[in-house]
Amino acid sequence: MSHSFTPPFTAQRPLRVAVIGSGPSGVYAAEALIKQTALPTEVDVFDRLPTPYGLVRYGVAPDHLTIKSVTKGFEKTLSDPRVRFLGNVEFGKDLTHDDLKAHYDAIMYTVGASGDRRLGIPGEDLSGSMSATEFVAWYNGHPDAAAREMVLSATGVAVVGVGNVALDVSRILLKTVAELQASDIAPHALEVLEDSPVKDVWILGRRSAAQAKFTTKELREFGELSDADPVVKPAEVAVDEVAEAAITDNVVRKNLEVIRDFAGRTPEGKPRRIHLRFLVSPVEILGDENGNVSGLKIERNTLDASGNAVGTGETEVLPVQMVLRSVGYRGVALPGVPFDEKLGIIPNVEGRVEGRTGEYTSGWIKRGPSGVIGTNRKDSTDTVAHLLADADALPPVAKASRADIDALLQERGVDVYTFADWQALDTHEQAQGQAQGRPRAKVVHKHEMLGHRQK
Ligand code: NAP
Predict the structure, then answer these.
(1) How far apart are the two ends of the chain, measured CA to CA in Å?
(2) Of ligand 1's atoms, which has the minimum distance to the CA of residue 211?
(3) For 206-233, how does the pLDDT look when each residue is reduced to its tens digit (9 = 90+)?
(4) Are the CB atoms for 227 and 271 separated by under 8 Å?
(5) Binding site membership of 214 for ligand 1 (Cβ less than 6 Å)
(6) Beta-bridge mates of residue 157
(7) Which of 162, 168, 203, 367 should be mutated for ligand 1, with most atoms under 8 A from CB?
(8) pTM tops 0.90
């Protein structure tokens, strides 16, 4: 049986969707909504920051510029006449859930996962211990972290976790100024890293190298750094023949190849070292009398039959003054929106928010913090398909027009930053960067961003 829409929506009264968050999942949702032609649709994409693109601007490593080229497509979507970008509008503060219900046929939450997970070990709150999320936000020039004073006096740094974020933060700590110049790292971070005393970075995996979450391309970069040698203890990455034969995952195989290549290398005597350690767990962050990190106690692990790490009681102390926990992001609850505290996501069934009509979700706040940017395209397309299938049954909305929502925002004195405003800022940042031989020099303070507007 073929499925056909009998939409109540028309070109005069299109389906109106509010997308909360302009990161990859939000922009892919907008793209999916305007790609279909069965239903005339208008999309307003909100972001609490003046700048669009969320994780692509503030999460992706500054030296991974090719990953950021997805913004070319995002630009096309946000410039489409059916789509508007309304930056500097905070959900729950400038606009509440009830405001949106009164103005849109459907709401799509695509706010990602801006929080982070903790280790739950003593010493986690010492000065010099922080989440990778905080460190990433700082070097990427996130406005919330821009004012943070980052003192980088550590010669040794431990990075806990073996996902791609752990590799990102370690690589940024180890690159030379010349290498960082080619990135779009925030100017304040470049200045601090220029004087960085870091000599040794330890990346710590609690399980075996075969269970690391990072990907091979990212791992290989450690073999190509101009100032840092990779160091791996051969015994820690030994895999017996039976276990080796059982590996079917190609990424794992390739990861092991690279790690073994590192283990077999004689260090070239570069001034910095990246130590990849496995089967070790942090048990305590040690502090000095001033409350600063002075070491990290780690415990050697073995694996149980299910592949989980089990402590052996054998410990050692790493000489580090900074500890970055990179053990995963976590979603943060939105006011007036259901939230699963345990999973850190909006409870949903295939993107339909549980217990709600006309409310949807996609991306990390829907499924948790996993996958690459492209994963969110399918995720958003899937949710949008459900939204469109429900369209006939969506409850009537009293004030469903652009003029109505604009009037409300104006009445509240919200200083909306448009896509054209962002484009003016974008041009400015690129010009500033190019003047310094860099791809971009980010503006990091919100008040400064708001000063750059479409002429
Ligand atoms: P992730 O890939 O989930 O890695 C988290 C790591 O933390 C795992 O190694 C995990 O080990 C470890 N961990 C968790 N709890 C721990 C604990 N208590 N003690 C020690 N280790 C612990 O997370 P992520 O690195 O934050 O990355 C998030 C997503 O973004 C991933 O899908 C990633 O691929 C993606 N990403 C991609 C790129 C890229 O493509 N270049 C860059 C950055 C991020 P277990 O396995 O033992 O739990």
Answers:
(1) 53
(2) 46
(3) 999 999 999 999 999 999 999 999 999 9
(4) yes
(5) no
(6) 201, 322
(7) 162
(8) yes
